[in-house]
Amino acid sequence: MGTSGRHASHVRTRCWAYIGGIGILLICWLAVIAGKAVGRASLARRAAQSLAEQTEGSRNLVLRNRRGIEVHLLRTGASIQKLLLPDRNGKFADVVLGFDEEVAYSDGRSPYFGAIVGRVANRIANASFELDSATYRLATNERGMPGSLHGGRRGFDKVRWNAARVAPCASERRQGAKCRRGDEISMRYQSAAGEEGYPGTLDVEVTYTLTDADELIQTIRATTDAPTIINLAQHSYFNLGGHASGEVLGHELTMPRSTHMLPIDAHRIPTGQLAPVRGTAFDFTSTAELGARISNVDGPGWTAGFDHCFVLHGRGPAALTKPGTQWWPRTPRPAITLRDPASGRSMAIATNAPGVQLYTSNFLDGSLAGKGGARYPKYAGVCLETQNFPDAIHHLPTADRGGFPSPVLRPGETYLHTTIYTFSVDRLSGAVTDR
């Protein structure tokens, strides 16, 4: 090959190398662009997933049954935000007070609407208690009162619970057994040792089950890694006429086996005594309208209203236990019926808890803007909070006197509190489809 040929070959080689280099650079550049695009897509997917998780976190978790009843839950406070029930004409209404936006349940506006309250529901005298020779100080968070209310400033009602939908009857089906459970959601929360002043790390699970028998079953379980105290309650404000229908004074209440109630002192704390209800405004052993009795009941800081605990299951004076005994039933027993004659809606409550706090929303005053902008006046709802007796840690039994059922939970023990709400109507004609 001549000089010119070798030169031409060399030029071609360099050109191809140059072109190849450009090609490699182009490929690399395209790869970088593609990588960035993939990265952006991945980031976009992650952002979308995060947004979806946030949206799902703020969206209601809904239980439904075949008759159209719905229970809307929130992760904040493991709260019941909506409860849709038909009336005698098949028209559905939301029968619990609450807010449209979830943030209102945690920012201090909510008077515990629909929430699980704890670690200790109700009140603890002087915001302190002793357990195993140690003294624990709690927050004083009830205006004008020296006690601690519903677990403190940031109780279980304001924290975020983890939620999961449960496959109904999975274990029963594996065993070939029948099961009545329906749509089911489980909520979990771990309360760290020292949270709001309480000892022990507490693991809590609340399961809500809606059956086709029109039952809402609430099961609360808890365990601890160190001795602590516990008393959890569901704090829904019920108005069976509809959450925006006004007062509940026309609702009828029946507690046929609640022959005794717990008197309270000037700080809204039980005195440790039990009082018979017969012949008093507290006698709901026969059906009575709330409004027929309410004007005869005043309390510390309010006039004409109930905020008192009643003894359930016919225990009466025997509710004061001896040391080392615990009489909580393992299974729920029928205890309470609430009925709205105007709509025909009724709610029967069965529970294994020893008591129920009857609260007639004495401190609502119309200033709260609830769902759909509804204003909730005094008596807009009634709470029926199944629970242990309030301030039980200060009224434990001794060798010479009976006391309240113990609220103490120790490692190896399981706290179990089950309440069943069964919904019905006086008469239902035709399909229930009108919302």
TrEMBL record:
<keyword id="KW-0413">Isomerase</keyword>
<dbReference type="InterPro" id="IPR015443">
    <property type="entry name" value="Aldose_1-epimerase"/>
</dbReference>
<comment type="pathway">
    <text>Carbohydrate metabolism; hexose metabolism.</text>
</comment>
<feature type="binding site">
    <location>
        <begin position="122"/>
        <end position="123"/>
    </location>
    <ligand>
        <name>beta-D-galactose</name>
    </ligand>
</feature>
<dbReference type="GO" id="GO:0033499">
    <property type="term" value="P:galactose catabolic process via UDP-galactose, Leloir pathway"/>
</dbReference>
<feature type="binding site">
    <location>
        <begin position="235"/>
        <end position="237"/>
    </location>
    <ligand>
        <name>beta-D-galactose</name>
    </ligand>
</feature>
<feature type="active site" description="Proton acceptor">
    <location>
        <position position="385"/>
    </location>
</feature>
<dbReference type="GO" id="GO:0030246">
    <property type="term" value="F:carbohydrate binding"/>
</dbReference>
<keyword id="KW-0119">Carbohydrate metabolism</keyword>
<protein>
    <recommendedName>
        <fullName>Aldose 1-epimerase</fullName>
        <ecNumber>5.1.3.3</ecNumber>
    </recommendedName>
</protein>
<dbReference type="InterPro" id="IPR011013">
    <property type="entry name" value="Gal_mutarotase_sf_dom"/>
</dbReference>
<dbReference type="Pfam" id="PF01263">
    <property type="entry name" value="Aldose_epim"/>
</dbReference>
<comment type="similarity">
    <text>Belongs to the aldose epimerase family.</text>
</comment>
<dbReference type="InterPro" id="IPR047215">
    <property type="entry name" value="Galactose_mutarotase-like"/>
</dbReference>
<feature type="binding site">
    <location>
        <position position="307"/>
    </location>
    <ligand>
        <name>beta-D-galactose</name>
    </ligand>
</feature>
<dbReference type="GO" id="GO:0006006">
    <property type="term" value="P:glucose metabolic process"/>
</dbReference>
<keyword id="KW-0472">Membrane</keyword>
<dbReference type="InterPro" id="IPR008183">
    <property type="entry name" value="Aldose_1/G6P_1-epimerase"/>
</dbReference>
<dbReference type="InterPro" id="IPR014718">
    <property type="entry name" value="GH-type_carb-bd"/>
</dbReference>
<dbReference type="GO" id="GO:0004034">
    <property type="term" value="F:aldose 1-epimerase activity"/>
</dbReference>
<keyword id="KW-1133">Transmembrane helix</keyword>
<feature type="active site" description="Proton donor">
    <location>
        <position position="235"/>
    </location>
</feature>
<feature type="transmembrane region" description="Helical">
    <location>
        <begin position="16"/>
        <end position="38"/>
    </location>
</feature>
<keyword id="KW-0812">Transmembrane</keyword>
